Amino acid sequence: MPLLDHFHEPLVSRRAWESFHARWVNSIADALQATLPRRYFAEIQVHLGRSVEADVAEFEITANEEEPPNGSTGGVAVQTWAPPAPPVVFTATFLDDIEVHVRDERNDGRLVAVVELVSPANKDRPETRSAFAAKCAAYLKRGVGLIAVDIVTSRNFNMHNELVRLLDVAAPLMPEEESLIAVAYRPTRRQQENRVEAWPTPLSVGGTLPTLPLAIRGWRAIPVDLEAAYTDARQRSRL
Questions:
Q1: Which of 26, 88, 144, 169 is most enclosed, with most CB atoms within 10 A?
Q2: Shortest CA distance to 128 belongs to which of 181, 99, 91, 100?
Q3: Contact 98, 46 (CB under 8 A)
C-alpha cells in the first residue's frame, strides 16, 4: 500500500497519528514474534513525553485529597507529605517512545534490538532532535541493533543526519530535503575496529516502504518488512 500523509489534511483531522503508530508497532512486533527464535521476544513500548506533564498535574490535584484510614479495619490516617521546595530547577526534554523492543530471555531479558517510529515531538525543536539522536546513539553504543522510521511530514528535518552529527563521525549525510526516511543501523566489529553499518533509505508519500535488516545483538540480522507491517496496520485501521 502507498505511504499516506498521516500529518496533514484530509487524514490528520479524521484519524489520530498516535493511534496508527501504536497499531503499526504492534504489527511490526507481531511479525518479529513469528520470525525470531524462541529465545527472543518482541514487545512494544509506547510512551508520549507530554504525559509526564499530566502525571505531575494529577499528583498536584490529588495530593491534598484526604486518604482513607490505613488497614481494612481503620486506623490512624497518615498526613499527606510533600517535599520541600527544590533548590535547583532546570529544563528537561521528555521524549516520545514508540518502539518495538527485542529482548533475550536467556540473558535476563537483555535488550538486543529496537525498531523506532519517529513522532512529531521527536523532531519539532533542536533540543528534541538532539535528545532523539542521543537516544539512538546510546542504543548503538551498547551494541543494540536499530531501525528508525520517520514518516512525519509536518517537520522537515533529516533525523539520520542529526545522529551522524551527534556521533561526529566521517559518514556521508543524506540530502537535508529527504526528511522522510527509514534507516537500519548495525553495530559491529570488523578487522579490530568498532563500526556502525547503516542502510539509509529515503521515503515518499505515495511510495512503498523497504525491507531493512534488524541486527540482533549476539546473533544475526533478520529482515523487517516495513511495507507488510504498514499494510497490516492500514487494513486494521480501515485506512
A1: 144
A2: 91
A3: yes
